[in-house]
Amino acid sequence: MALEDDMLGMLEQLEAGKKQATILLLSQLWDHHMDSYNHCVQVGLKSLEASRFLGYNGGQMFFAGLLHDIGKLKVDVKILDRHVPFGEEEYRIIQSHPAEGYAKVRPLFPFEAEVLLRHHKFCKRSYPEKFPEPVNPNGFDMNLIESYARLLGVIDYYSSMQRHDGYPYPEGNKMQKIMQERSGMDEIIRRLFDANILA
Ligand SMILES: [Fe+2]
Ligand SMILES: [Fe+2]
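Above: inputs. Below: predicted complex with fe (ii) ion.
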Protein backbone atom coordinates (compact mmCIF):
# COMPACT_ATOMS: atom_id res chain seq x y z
CA MET A 1 0.00 0.00 0.00
CA ALA A 2 1.37 3.42 -0.92
CA LEU A 3 2.16 5.72 1.98
CA GLU A 4 -0.38 8.30 0.82
CA ASP A 5 -3.04 5.60 1.09
CA ASP A 6 -1.73 5.03 4.58
CA MET A 7 -2.51 8.64 5.45
CA LEU A 8 -6.10 8.33 4.25
CA GLY A 9 -6.41 4.96 5.97
CA MET A 10 -5.22 6.44 9.28
CA LEU A 11 -7.68 9.34 9.05
CA GLU A 12 -10.51 6.98 8.11
CA GLN A 13 -9.95 4.95 11.29
CA LEU A 14 -10.71 7.96 13.49
CA GLU A 15 -14.17 8.52 14.90
CA ALA A 16 -16.03 11.22 12.96
CA GLY A 17 -15.50 14.12 15.40
CA LYS A 18 -11.79 13.47 15.78
CA LYS A 19 -11.35 13.08 12.05
CA GLN A 20 -13.12 16.36 11.38
CA ALA A 21 -11.07 18.21 14.01
CA THR A 22 -7.82 16.77 12.66
CA ILE A 23 -8.65 17.72 9.08
CA LEU A 24 -9.62 21.21 10.25
CA LEU A 25 -6.25 21.70 11.96
CA LEU A 26 -4.42 20.46 8.87
CA SER A 27 -6.41 22.69 6.54
CA GLN A 28 -5.66 25.69 8.77
CA LEU A 29 -1.95 24.86 8.53
CA TRP A 30 -2.28 24.46 4.74
CA ASP A 31 -3.78 27.96 4.53
CA HIS A 32 -1.27 29.48 6.96
CA HIS A 33 1.95 28.00 5.61
CA MET A 34 2.01 25.34 2.92
CA ASP A 35 5.66 24.45 3.52
CA SER A 36 4.91 23.57 7.19
CA TYR A 37 1.88 21.54 6.10
CA ASN A 38 3.98 19.52 3.62
CA HIS A 39 6.63 19.01 6.28
CA CYS A 40 4.03 17.72 8.77
CA VAL A 41 2.62 15.24 6.25
CA GLN A 42 6.12 14.05 5.40
CA VAL A 43 7.04 13.64 9.09
CA GLY A 44 3.77 11.81 9.81
CA LEU A 45 4.27 9.32 6.98
CA LYS A 46 7.95 8.77 7.71
CA SER A 47 7.12 8.28 11.41
CA LEU A 48 4.58 5.64 10.44
CA GLU A 49 7.07 3.83 8.20
CA ALA A 50 9.84 3.97 10.84
CA SER A 51 7.46 2.80 13.57
CA ARG A 52 6.35 -0.22 11.60
CA PHE A 53 10.00 -1.14 11.14
CA LEU A 54 10.95 -0.56 14.79
CA GLY A 55 7.82 -2.13 16.27
CA TYR A 56 6.50 1.14 17.72
CA ASN A 57 2.81 2.02 17.63
CA GLY A 58 2.33 3.30 14.08
CA GLY A 59 -0.94 5.11 14.73
CA GLN A 60 0.40 7.04 17.70
CA MET A 61 3.60 7.99 15.90
CA PHE A 62 1.69 8.93 12.75
CA PHE A 63 -0.60 11.42 14.50
CA ALA A 64 2.21 12.77 16.68
CA GLY A 65 4.23 13.36 13.48
CA LEU A 66 1.35 14.67 11.40
CA LEU A 67 0.49 17.28 14.04
CA HIS A 68 3.95 17.90 15.53
CA ASP A 69 4.30 21.45 14.18
CA ILE A 70 0.63 22.47 14.33
CA GLY A 71 1.66 25.08 16.91
CA LYS A 72 3.27 26.99 14.03
CA LEU A 73 -0.25 28.24 13.27
CA LYS A 74 0.61 30.82 15.95
CA VAL A 75 3.94 31.80 14.38
CA ASP A 76 4.07 34.63 11.85
CA VAL A 77 4.63 33.46 8.27
CA LYS A 78 7.53 35.91 7.88
CA ILE A 79 9.38 34.01 10.60
CA LEU A 80 8.43 30.61 9.17
CA ASP A 81 9.76 31.64 5.77
CA ARG A 82 13.18 32.64 7.05
CA HIS A 83 15.87 30.21 5.98
CA VAL A 84 18.68 31.99 7.81
CA PRO A 85 19.56 31.69 11.49
CA PHE A 86 17.01 33.31 13.78
CA GLY A 87 17.64 36.27 16.06
CA GLU A 88 16.95 35.74 19.78
CA GLU A 89 13.45 37.26 19.62
CA GLU A 90 12.44 35.18 16.61
CA TYR A 91 13.87 32.12 18.27
CA ARG A 92 11.77 32.81 21.37
CA ILE A 93 8.63 32.97 19.20
CA ILE A 94 9.53 29.78 17.32
CA GLN A 95 10.19 28.01 20.61
CA SER A 96 6.55 28.49 21.60
CA HIS A 97 5.30 26.08 18.91
CA PRO A 98 5.54 22.76 20.82
CA ALA A 99 3.45 24.13 23.72
CA GLU A 100 0.97 25.79 21.34
CA GLY A 101 0.62 22.52 19.45
CA TYR A 102 0.23 20.60 22.70
CA ALA A 103 -2.71 22.79 23.74
CA LYS A 104 -4.45 22.22 20.40
CA VAL A 105 -3.82 18.48 20.13
CA ARG A 106 -4.30 17.39 23.78
CA PRO A 107 -8.13 17.33 23.67
CA LEU A 108 -8.01 15.06 20.60
CA PHE A 109 -4.96 12.89 21.17
CA PRO A 110 -3.65 13.14 24.76
CA PHE A 111 -0.80 10.63 24.33
CA GLU A 112 0.36 12.02 20.98
CA ALA A 113 0.23 15.53 22.45
CA GLU A 114 2.75 14.49 25.13
CA VAL A 115 5.01 13.12 22.37
CA LEU A 116 4.85 16.19 20.15
CA LEU A 117 5.39 18.51 23.11
CA ARG A 118 8.83 16.89 23.42
CA HIS A 119 9.90 16.81 19.77
CA HIS A 120 12.61 19.41 20.37
CA LYS A 121 13.56 18.16 23.84
CA PHE A 122 16.42 15.96 22.63
CA CYS A 123 17.91 18.51 20.22
CA LYS A 124 21.25 20.23 20.66
CA ARG A 125 19.31 23.36 21.63
CA SER A 126 16.57 21.74 23.71
CA TYR A 127 13.19 23.36 24.35
CA PRO A 128 10.75 24.02 25.95
CA GLU A 129 12.44 24.51 29.33
CA LYS A 130 9.39 23.48 31.38
CA PHE A 131 6.81 20.77 30.84
CA PRO A 132 3.31 20.73 32.32
CA GLU A 133 2.15 17.71 34.31
CA PRO A 134 0.87 15.12 31.82
CA VAL A 135 -2.92 15.00 31.68
CA ASN A 136 -2.93 11.35 32.62
CA PRO A 137 0.34 10.84 34.56
CA ASN A 138 -0.62 7.44 35.96
CA GLY A 139 -1.83 6.08 32.67
CA PHE A 140 1.07 7.22 30.48
CA ASP A 141 4.38 5.46 30.25
CA MET A 142 6.70 8.46 30.25
CA ASN A 143 9.66 6.37 29.06
CA LEU A 144 7.64 5.33 26.04
CA ILE A 145 6.59 8.93 25.38
CA GLU A 146 10.23 10.00 25.53
CA SER A 147 11.37 7.23 23.14
CA TYR A 148 8.65 8.24 20.69
CA ALA A 149 9.62 11.90 21.07
CA ARG A 150 13.26 11.02 20.34
CA LEU A 151 12.26 9.19 17.16
CA LEU A 152 10.03 12.09 16.16
CA GLY A 153 12.96 14.46 16.70
CA VAL A 154 15.13 12.36 14.36
CA ILE A 155 12.52 12.27 11.61
CA ASP A 156 11.75 15.96 12.04
CA TYR A 157 15.42 16.83 11.59
CA TYR A 158 15.72 14.49 8.60
CA SER A 159 12.70 16.12 6.95
CA SER A 160 14.14 19.60 7.60
CA MET A 161 17.37 18.59 5.90
CA GLN A 162 15.44 17.60 2.76
CA ARG A 163 13.33 20.72 2.89
CA HIS A 164 15.99 23.35 2.94
CA ASP A 165 17.96 21.71 0.19
CA GLY A 166 21.09 21.36 2.23
CA TYR A 167 20.96 24.82 3.84
CA PRO A 168 21.86 25.67 6.62
CA TYR A 169 23.22 22.15 7.03
CA PRO A 170 26.80 21.61 5.91
CA GLU A 171 27.69 19.10 3.26
CA GLY A 172 28.82 15.73 4.49
CA ASN A 173 27.53 12.51 5.90
CA LYS A 174 23.82 12.91 6.56
CA MET A 175 23.67 10.07 9.05
CA GLN A 176 26.52 11.52 11.14
CA LYS A 177 24.90 14.94 11.08
CA ILE A 178 21.59 13.58 12.41
CA MET A 179 23.48 11.69 15.12
CA GLN A 180 25.19 14.93 16.18
CA GLU A 181 21.91 16.83 16.31
CA ARG A 182 19.80 14.18 18.05
CA SER A 183 21.52 12.63 21.02
CA GLY A 184 21.15 9.05 22.21
CA MET A 185 19.73 7.71 18.94
CA ASP A 186 22.81 6.44 17.10
CA GLU A 187 21.76 2.80 17.01
CA ILE A 188 18.23 3.52 15.78
CA ILE A 189 19.44 6.10 13.24
CA ARG A 190 21.90 3.52 11.88
CA ARG A 191 19.16 0.88 11.59
CA LEU A 192 16.85 3.32 9.77
CA PHE A 193 19.60 4.13 7.26
CA ASP A 194 20.50 0.44 6.82
CA ALA A 195 16.84 -0.30 6.06
CA ASN A 196 16.70 2.66 3.61
CA ILE A 197 13.89 4.28 5.58
CA LEU A 198 16.21 7.26 5.95
CA ALA A 199 18.48 7.82 2.95
FE1 LIG B 1 9.05 21.67 15.56
FE1 LIG C 1 9.09 20.04 12.33
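The chain has one domain: 3-120+133-194.
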